Amino acid sequence: MQRLPEELVACVFHHLHAEHALAASMVVNRQWYIYGARNLHAQLVLRLPHTLTNHSPAVVISLMRRLVSPTLSTAHLIRHLVVAGHANKDIWTLIVDILRHATALCSLDVHDLHLPPDSTALFAPDVFSSPDFLPSLVALNASSRASFPPLMSLVHTHRLHALRVHAAMDRRDFRSITDPAGLFADSIEFVELAISVDTPGEAVQEVTHLASALSRASLRGLALQFVLDRPGLMSWPDFEDAIDQMGPSLQTFSGLAILSIAIRPDPPMNSPHGSGDAYRESLTRRLAEHVIADHGLFHLTRIELRWHGWKIEGGNLVALSRTELARLPQSWMFKLNGPESQ
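Predicted structure:
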């Protein structure tokens, strides 16, 4: 095995992608381990059970240790990383060590990662605010600033192409992320945010701000969820009016292909036929058609309003399954648009 030309080994592994075959080949020798890891660890998912400790014999902990092992380190080969589950202080320290070595990491998904209540003390701001930390990062999917404190540092120090933040943020954080003088305003292509608002008018104001702040960006996807603090603050006519007022601002994003706007709680719609979903979908579809036609959003390939969405094919709206909607926690536009190309 040692005598095989390296060019031949590289060629074989270039065409080898089956996980079982890669895992078997990686035990042959160190050279094959590194070549196998280049494929097997390029897109990595680390799921951490609630009871896991840093000294656990669990496979995931063994893998995490090998990623930063002095002799078998392969963290630098990871391009797309998902970390989900529960991490105590020691496991978080190990995760940070992996991230320190992950110089080729393009996307980081930690939206389902749960840290201890006092997790803020676990973060070293000087580490995460350095542009040398995750220098290749272009996509971030996080739950909130509170659950992932490095969020704001990464937004301000990296040229992100895609950002999703699941939990509702206040105006201060929203304006900080979308600062027109920041790196974000130049590089972002996919924005998915949840924003706290008190009135329909505030939702319109935030979209107006976004259009101005991101005027230099080549925005391709926009998903906004406006979160009210209690039901009944926005009726269906209020929602229709707010979407119509957002139209001129949305029109400024000439390259926008995907648009999703939702309100939480969902505005009530009084159906003359009871609680018919078909009626609600027909009203929402009519609003989507109105927004596209009246505000010239003919460049859209997909539009979602409330709990309904459509692909636009040849000028026709083709209904999407609710399981495909951008507002769902498992959705991420970056993943939808092919992270393997990054």
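Summary: Residues 199 and 233 are 7 Å apart (CA to CA).
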